[in-house]
Amino acid sequence: EDPTCFFEPETPRDRSPHEEEINGNTRAFIRFVASTRPWRDVFAGRLREKIGASLLRSAIRIRDTLSSSSAKR
Predict the structure, then answer these.
(1) Which one, of 28, 50, 27, 22, lies nearest residue 38 by Cα?
(2) How far apart are CA 8 and CA 44, in angstroms?
């Protein structure tokens, strides 16, 4: 369920008049991401380890900074 969707079907079988357009846009976006660098590399996992490690190090630094700030108070 999409929390940003305001379509209220009367029955479970009802479809939004915009559903085909949205599905087409989603397919085009996925094709773009799958075939365009750097997005292709990020989502294919080639950069995941580097990005993940970098995010983890940043999170640790932030946590440590916040912990030391709290301890000084």
Answers:
(1) 50
(2) 36
